[in-house]
TrEMBL record:
InterPro entries the record matches: AGR/TXD, Thioredoxin-like_sf
Keyword Ion transport included in the entry's annotation: no
Cross-referenced Pfam families: Thioredoxin_7
Descriptive protein name: Anterior gradient 1
GO CC list: endoplasmic reticulum
Family the entry assigns: Belongs to the AGR family.
Top-level lineage group: Eukaryota
Length: 163
């Protein structure tokens, strides 16, 4: 009898630990290392909807988990307090590992990592670019000041855009 009670107790403890891990993994999976304190949307459609409702710009990060350039950018992005604060407070945030069907999110081609901004009127802001002319929306770990400035630019453009 005692063995049966202990076995039941063991199973219930294991089940509750599994539930806790499951909840943690779900939250972490949307962040994918880009910032756990940021509210990430699941997909592009949800991002567009939230941008329109909240009147905040959508920031779309295209990356791959196994790409060394994506990993390096992710590490710098997650470590930059200014970027993390703006991302959390002023943007709808989406990080994608797959391409969307919206060709406007690849104005100069399909490559990773790349970051684009979409305003609440659902216009992709192709005028907000990184420092490279051939890969206009690419950023590197050393470009965090430029990315922060581009985030501020996206916010300013939003304030001057009539919806």
């Amino acid at each position: 009898m005692l063995r049966l009670v202990l076995f039941a107790l063991f199973i219930s403890v294991c089940a509750s630990v599994g539930q806790q891990k499951k909840k943690k993994v779900k939250t972490e999976s949307l962040a994918r290392g880009w910032g756990v304190n940021i509210n990430w949307v699941k997909n592009y459609e949800e991002g567009l909807l939230n941008a329109g409702v909240s009147l905040k710009p959508l920031m779309v990060i295209h990356h791959l988990l196994d790409c060394p350039h994506s990993k390096a950018l992710k590490k710098a992005f997650a470590a930059d307090k200014t970027i993390q604060k703006m991302a959390k407070e002023d943007f709808i945030m989406l990080n994608l590992q797959e391409e969307t069907t919206d060709k406007n999110l690849a104005p100069d081609g399909y490559y990773v990592p790349r970051i684009l901004f979409v305003d609440p009127s659902l216009t992709v802001r192709t005028n907000i670019k990184g420092r490279y002319s051939n890969l206009a929306y690419a950023y590197e770990p050393g470009d965090m000041k430029l990315l922060a400035e581009n985030m501020r630019k996206a916010k300013r453009l939003m304030q001057h855009t009539e919806l």
